[in-house]
Structures are given as C-alpha cells and as structure tokens.
Input
Amino acid sequence: MSQIPAAMDELLWMIAENGDDSAIETFLKRYPDQRIEILRRRRMVMDLRSAKPLALPGGKRPDFIPTVPRAVAAPAWRWPVVAASLVVLLTVTWAAYTVTQRWQARQAVAMVNSMDNPLPRRSIFRTAEPPSPTPAPVADPSQRLTPEAAPVVRQPAITPVPSVSAEQVLPSQAPYERPITVRLTETTLDRALGFIGRASGLSVVIGPGIPDEITEVDYVNVRPLEALKDMGRRYGFTVFDQGNGTVLVIPAVDPQAATAGPPSRPSPTVPSPAQQTPNQGLQGPIRSQE
Amino acid sequence: MSLGSAIRSTDYDEDLILVERFLAGDPEAFPTLYARYYDRVFSIARGILIDADEAEDAVQEVFTLIYRNLSRFDRRSRLSTWLFRIAVNRSIQQSRSARYRNRWTTLTEADEQADESAVPVLPDSRITFAMEHLGASDRAILTLFYWEDLSLQEIADSLGCGVNAAKTRLFRARERFRRYFEDAPE
Output
C-alpha cells in the first residue's frame, strides 16, 4: 500500500468508490498488477456503504417532544432574607458609626482635659514631685496670681506615659503651640512675658527697649504665640518666632507690623541700614545679631 | 447533474419554507422538518457514536438545539448543512463524554454491557471493529462521505473546514479504517 504512488492510490480509490464494473475492467486491463488492490478496496467500500444503519432497531421513529427549559422560579423566602440581610447590614453600619463617633468625642474631651489639667484625677501619668513654680519676686503685694494663671501645661518633672498623652492626641502640635490660660493682673510686661514663656514652654527672649509698664493679661485657652502677638499689638512690640521654640520680642518700629513671620523672611519692622539714623532702629544685642 | 441540482434546489426551498413557517408559529412545520431529517441525523449520530441508544439520545439533543435556535439560522448555507454540522458536533461531544463515562463504569456494569454488546451494533462485525477503533472525527468524516454521500464541499461545510482539509482528513481516516478493517477478525 505504501509503495503505490499517490496518483495511482487516488485513482484506485476513485474507481473503487465509483462502483462501475466497466471502469474496473478497463483499469485492470491497463494495470493488471493492481487487481488484488482494487478488489480489496472495492470490497471495503461496498461493505462500509452497506453497513449504513437505516433506522432504529424497532424501525419506529420516536416522536419529538421539544423540551423548553423552564425558568426556575425564585424561592419564596428570597425577599425576606434579602430584606433581613439589609437590615442587619444597616444596623451594623449604624452601630459602628455611633461607636466611632462616641470614641472620637471621648478622645476630644480627654485631649481638652489634658490641656486644661495636665494631671487629671485618673491620670496614669507617673509623676515626680512637681516642682512648685518659682514665683517671680512680687514687687507689689497687690499683684496676685489667680488660680487660672497656673495652667502650666508642661512640667519638666512629668513623665508622660505614651498611651494617653496629649502629644499622642495631637502628634503634629508642638508643646508651645498648645492653648494656655493666663490671667495676670497688675504685673509688669517683663514678668507677664516670662510667665507666658514658662507656661507654654517657649523661650522668650526680650530685646532691649521693651517698656516695663504695669499690665494686665487675661487669655483663656489661647495659643501662646497668639497671646504674645496680641500683647505686642497692645504694648507696641513685635514677636519674632524663631521656629525652634524661641520667641524674640523687640520693640515695634512699624505699628502696623505687630506680628511677623519667621525670621527668614524680611521683616518690615526692621529698617534697612540705609534708612537707619543713628538714633533710630534697634540697638544692643539685636543689632549685633544682624 | 442538472437533475440533482434541481432536486437540491427544491429541497433548499422547501426547507426554507418550513423554517419560515416554523418561525411564523406554524406548529406543523417543525415535525415536518423532524421527519424529513431524522434518518440522516440518526445515521450520522450512529456512525459517530456506534451505539444505537447513544445515537438516539444525540438525535433528540440535536433536534432540541435546532428547535430552540432555528431563528439563528442565517440562511447563507443550506439548512441540511447547518443541521449536519450541529449533528456532527453534538455527536462528537457526546462521544467524548460517553468515553469518559465508560472509563469509570464499575465491574458489574461492565459485565452487563458486555452481555448487551454480544450483538453487533452494526451489521458487519468487521465494520464495527474498524469503526470502534477509529476516533470520533474519523468516524464523522467517513459517515458523511460513505453513508450520506456528501461531496467534499458539503463535508467541508459540515465540519467547518476547507475542502482541501476535508480531502486530507478523508484520506487519512480511510487509510486508518482500512488498516483496522483488514486486521479485523472475520
């Protein structure tokens, strides 16, 4: 079979499948050596064709019954289950929201308490004996410090436990940026500035020329810098925030510039050397720093 | 040749008329199509599946598919070509699943099946022997060519391949069949 050329093989199949006896005889006259091959193929084709099943063994064609897929109805309990699931989901969501809101409110109250009162009753701070603030020498016996004037938020001896400390509540807030409450009556400006510095943790550097006059300070829950700037507007000095917890207080030249930004920016209160006259401008250490 | 073409043209038109009647809601149209093509579809399924019961199930599946999807018939080919293509594909698919099922039959079921298969499923035992050893694709193309007398073009259309591919596949299937046929016990 494999020795037969492809053209002859195709011709053999064509004649075997044609079934014409005269064609077979003509082929065999020309190719008598292919007699066995053509007869074997002829028999195979005839047997294969005759094996075609004409019908079912019973000879009866079954009826066709179209089976249309019916839609499966949804179970009757589907909607109640969906509704109950939604209710449960909404309840859980509302409860989570409420709990979160209450927790945040409690945290906010705790933060305010920690600012107003650094040693709450149930504080878990482990504190050393708080040093009594050294009162400034009172020149005038009439000068008195009201109870609200002692909210020194930062006590050096306090060792905060990290869990509930105010620093954790407002991690980005520097200690000297926390609001303080200061009430001083009939005190000098130097002492008032120094007291605010101690209460807030700021290092207040007072330049020369600050008037030493009797003043009155009453700030409730105000940021130290804001309190100092307000005092500057009232008493004619300018507060320079040095940016590292140090505040420079110098007499204001320009009354419109009672407040000033960081020292890196040119300050309008400092006159340029060309504009300065020998009797004007800053003198003393400040000038030497320029 | 011209007579055959005329008959085919008439068949084509009659099939299309039946399709249109079915789509228009005529309840008698589909039974007419079913009666018209049942024997040929059964023959194809039987040639591919060999087993008569499997073939009968396949025929029911084929006509169910046609009943549901006759609206998708695009009329670019003859209805018979479309129908034979569905029959071939469905029978080959069922042949594969049947082969998978038979792989996991228990010993008792295998004994019962052996008793039933004592009767040859095709009239000629050598034909049965050769066909059983062929793959479903080979059986399909031999069935279409020798039992349904389809031309190579019609076979190509029914199998979804080109004429040359159909010719090559027919040649190889025939050679394999001949090898098993001549080796089969008398």
About this structure: Confidence is low (pLDDT under 50) at residues 118-170, 260-290 of chain A. Chain A touches chain B through 23 residues (CB under 8 Å). The beta strands of chain A are 126-127, 144-145, 158-159, 180-188, 203-206, 214-222, 237-241, 246-251.
